[in-house]
Amino acid sequence: MSSSVPATSLGEPNLTAILFFFVFIAATLGITYWAARKTKTTEEFFAAGRTVSGRQNGFALAGDYMSAASFLGIAGLVSQSGFDGLIYSTGWLVGWPVVLFLIAEPLRNLGKYTFTDVVSFRLKQTPVRVSAAIGTLAVVSFYLIAQMVGAGNLIRLMFGISYELAVAIVGIVMLAYVLFGGMIATTWVQIVKAVLLMFGAALLCVLTLAQFDFNPVTLFLRASEMYGAEVLAPGKQVANPWDAISLGLALMFGTAGLPHILMRFYTVPDAKAARQSVFWATGLIGAFYLMTFVLGFGAMVLVGREAITAVDKGGNMAAPLLAEVLGGTGLLGFIAAVAFATILAVVAGLTLSGAAALSHDLWVSVHRKGDAPREEQLMVARVATVVLGIVAILLGILFKGQNVAFMVGLAFAVAASGNFPALVLSIFWRGYTTGGAVASIITGTVASLGLIAVSPTIMVDLLGADAAWFPLKNPALLTIPLGFASGVLVSLLAPEVEAREGYDSKARRMIMGVE
Amino acid sequence: MNDELRALVRARRQVALALSVVVFALYFGFILAVAFAKEAMAREIVPGLSLGILAGALVIVGAWMTTWIYVSWANAHFDTKLAAHRTKGALK
Questions:
Q1: How far is B16 from chain A (nearest CA, A)?
Q2: pLDDT at position A340, please?
Q3: What are the DSSP calls for A7-36, one per residue?
Q4: B30: closest chain A residue by CA
Q5: Which among A146, A267, A341, B9 is least buried, having the fewest CB atoms inside 10 angstroms?
Q6: What are the two backbone dihedrals, phi and then psi, of residue B46, each rounded to the nearest 5 degrees?
């Protein structure tokens, strides 16, 4: 059944897709208009006035986190290599309990707008904020490139418009949300997107399983009958065991260092609500990743591997093609619109966190020493948003046609090696110092970037060299310990009395919040 | 910070670290098995369901369970003690 390549209407303008797309845009711009009238201070612009409930924030976190890479990417990966996709599905989920146990509550109690607030809460502001802003902007840029290039390709494929136009549309609509509606609009766009994505994935799952007696095992069995039992077993993605381990580390600890995710914890009123939001987010994201597995195998069996790669070499169209097989152009259109909403919501969250680093960390805290008039803070935040929006569009166009899939891994590696060690050490170790924090972030970030530049991903796959200087595709196995070790070493060599005293005096606030 | 609050901080730390270790062990047990015990992971328990797929699904369930355990502990135990501490502080 896989040998006949089904005719797909993918790539032709799809009436349902365009209709759903305009309904989504109209609804979210309506939300933005409503949010804009409530956005008058930086507290509203960056933290939605801290009025978001735990459950709402859980949905928004899920919406912020489940990118096109997880929806289309994992489904595609599973449809092509079967079991191997499960490493991503599980890895991207197990980061959440880590966020909950170690980070979420102290983060909410100590900080204001960015995770840098927490790294620097008892350290010298300027050096820590500058280095953490570098860590943030590195993660945000790589993540943005991956999202924008993905957006351009997907939307071109699904709506039949040019790549550049697709990138520009994403950039401009996202700018409208963030610039006018700030975090309030971004939160609701992410909630709407999370609901749409869960609904879309669940619908595809039910329709798929309906053809297999509602038993996933029957589906897996059919897949192994068609393509061999190896689709159910570890395969070529994990040919080098150390690659699998290093990737696993980056996925698990990267989540706890992603600036746009951490920023969402400031939108809730207190630590308890922060905790509840991870509870909801973990539930939703776990359910979603379980479903991507059915979608991937469903596409493998019902669409066929060759038919999927015929449309897109990377396999990214597996889920939309599955939708077309199950429900015709109507369902394809709906899923295409959901994928579009997915990208928009993630890009908005990324832009907002980049803008917070530029305006709150660099402009207000470093340049103005924390003392800037409210109007100026909001103005700088909006200027930073526009700058980032334009940068995102330009990066998207600049990287056209490049294979940027590795950039999501890169963003996770930098987040896990630079931001995560700095956060954990600052929260849990009173002996941590300003020099230690700078060392963790800069060492982790620079080492990840450097080692990826000489990894097989860049040197062999991208530049066509015979061998790479560094053997691992993802450097986290080496760079996470480096981030921790450099921070500990520098702190031990040059202790900082004020930092210890600062830790003790803030210890009560860390657990009780602002009283 | 008095002794009572300090004990509460220590309790939270212990629970948080213990559960982190559990999640880490679960996931890395899975990754190590995938990396070094490929044949075992390929074995089908019933036709169509390999040990690897079952283990992966169980890791997701494990992440849910530990999250649930922490949130219930914190909501019931930690918050109650913290609230008691707060009211006591207010009375002083």
A1: 5
A2: 85
A3: ---TTS--HHHHHHHHHHHHHHHHHHHHHH
A4: A87
A5: B9
A6: -125, 155
User: In sequence order, what DSSP letters do the residues of A403-471 get, joined into one string?
Assistant: --HHHHHHHHHHIIIIIHHHHHHHHH-TT--HHHHHHHHHHHHHHHHHHHHTSHIIIIIIT--SS-SS-
Q: Quick one: CA dihedral A268, A33, A360, A96, positive or negative?
A: positive
- The residues facing B46 across adjacent strands are B49
Q: Which of B:24-53 have CB within 8 Å of A?
A: 24, 26-28, 30-32, 34-36, 38, 41-42, 44, 46-50, 52-53
**Cα–Cα dist A506/A488, whole Å:** 21
Residue A93 has pLDDT above 50, yes or no: yes
Q: Using alpha carbons, list the distances in angstroms from residue A403 to A410, A494, A515.
A: 13, 43, 50
- Pick A91 or A15 by higher pLDDT: A91
Structural tokens at position A454 = 């000489």
Interface pTM, i.e. ipTM: 0.93
Q: Which residue has the tokens 């890791």?
A: B59
Contact check, Cβ <8 Å, B35/A102:
no
CB contacts of A512 in chain B (<8 Å) are 82, 86
Whether the CB-CB separation of A152 and A402 falls below 8 Å is answered with: no
Does B20 contact A283 at a Cβ distance shorter than 8 Å?
no
The answer to whether residue A106 scores a pLDDT higher than 70 is yes
Answer yes or no: are the C-beta atoms of A260 and A353 closer than 8 Å.
Answer: yes
Which residue from A352, A13, A320, A388 is spatially nearest to A165, judged by alpha carbons?
Answer: A13
Confirm or reject contact between B54 and chain A (CB < 8 A): no
- Alpha-carbon Rg of chain A, whole angstroms? 22
For A180-231, the DSSP string reads: HHHHHHHHHHHHHHHHHHHHHHHHHHHHHHHTTTT-HHHHHHHHHHHH-GGG
List the beta bridge partners of residue B49: B46
pLDDT digits (tens, 9 = 90+) for A301-312: 999 999 998 888
Cβ distance B71 to A100 less than 8 Å, yes or no, reads yes
Helices assigned H by DSSP within A72-124: 74-81, 85-98, 105-110, 116-119
The answer to whether the CB of A95 falls within 8 A of the CB of A254 is yes
For residue B70, the SS3 value is helix
Q: Return the pLDDT at A261.
A: 95
Return the biggest CA–CA distance within chain B: 67
Q: Is B74 on the interface with A (CB under 8 A)?
A: yes
What token pair was written down for A225? 């009958």
Residue A266 in tokens: 């400031």
CB-based contacts of A309, cutoff 8 Å, min separation 6: A80, A315
pLDDT tens for A329-338 read 889 888 888 8
Residue identified by tokens 């009375």 is: B91
Question: Is residue B69 less than 8 Å (CB to CB) from chain A?
Answer: no
Q: Which pLDDT does position A488 carry in this prediction?
A: 97
CA angle at A288 for the pair A283 and A291, rounded to the nearest 5°: 130
* Confidence check: pLDDT of B92 > 70: no
